[in-house]
Design a protein that fits this description.
232 residues; alpha/beta; Spore Coat Polysaccharide Biosynthesis Protein SpsA, Chain A; eight-stranded mixed sheet; two-stranded antiparallel ribbon; binds cytidine-5'-monophosphate; IspD/TarI
Amino acid sequence: MGVVALVPAAGRGERLGYGMPKALVPVDGVPLLVRAVRGLLDSGCVRHVVIAAPASDVDNVNTVTAPLAPADGAVHVVPGGAERSDSVRLALEHALREFPGTSIVLVHDAARAFTPPTVVKAVVDAVAAGHPAVIPVLPVADTVKEVDAGGVVIATPDRSALRVVQTPQGFDAAVLLRAHEAAPGLAATDDAGLVERLGVPVVTVPGHQDAMKITTKFDLAVAEALLAGTGG
Ligand code: C5P
């Protein structure tokens, strides 16, 4: 069972306001990307990682991630694309070319740097058990409204049927490739959305609060507090 994780990390991270790609922003001295890749490898079920880095930062990303997989070439870095989905597609093509035995592909945002390895393993196990697409999710705590372009509420979906979606998302490799090929140029915010368009069922496993996406300075402060609490 060849498991490869793709890590789209090519965003500029402007909402964080750090003046550097978000993936390279340090939390307690360790870049988010390094923490995210370490979590994938610590799960014990990911053999290779392909990172899509900002084109201008491929060398930097190679340098910061080199200590994670000394000598055995487990971590590759490729230039990302204009949109997240372009970065995923470029990393996927690289993975299928370089690691031909790949049967399961995870897609994991560098911004979810504190995802517990147990969540990674649960996703891989569910794909290995025969589900072609698996996503970690959490229940929704807030009531969610759908609004029109003017901000007027048009619907209140039943909260009990809603979930927030995290990563890593896990896929049968051929299904993920088909999903990307079927939607060229579509700027999807997550890969499961592309798989849904194929009519392939997407199943859920429990996510974890620590797998929160670090987008704003507030999120970064939460991550720092989390680390202070665990001594990590
Ligand atoms: O912008 P957002 O936070 O939704 O991005 C989610 C993930 O996708 C981030 O880890 C970001 O680095 C990555 N991304 C990418 N290529 C882009 C845009 C975003 O790899 N062109």
